[in-house]
Amino acid sequence: MVLDKLMIITNYDKFYRTIQECCAFLEIEPVIFQWETASPELTIRLRETFASQGKPEVIVTRGALADIVETSFPDIVVLRAEPDDLDILESLEVAMVYGKRIGLLINTDYGRNYKIDVLKRILDLKELRFYSFRSAEDIRKRIAEGKSDGMDAMVGGGTLGVRTGKAVGIPVCFANTSVRSLERAVLQALSIINAHSRERLQLETFWNTTSLISEGILVLEDKTVILANQEMLHILAAKEDAILNQPVSRLSPSYFSNAILQFFFEDSLPEKVLPVCDHKYLVKKRGTHSKGQKRLTVSFQNIIDIQNQEQQIRAALRDKGLSARFHFEDIKGNSPAIRTAKRKAALYAATDANILITGENGTGKEMFAQSIHNASIRKNNPFVAVNCAAIPEPLLESELFGYEEGSFSGAKRGGKPGLFELAQRGTLFLDEINSLPIQVQGVLLRAIQEKEIRRIGSQKNLAVDIRILSASNVQMDELIASGRFRADLYYRLNVLNLRLPPLCERKEDILPLAEVFLKKYAAQYHLELPVLTKEDRTFLVSGTWSGNVRSLENVIHRYTILQHGQHIPIRECMEDLTPSSSGHEIAVTPGTLEEMETELIHLYMKKNHGNRTETARQLGISRTTLWKKLNPCQTIT
Question: What is the pLDDT of residue 321?
Answer without folding.
Answer: 60
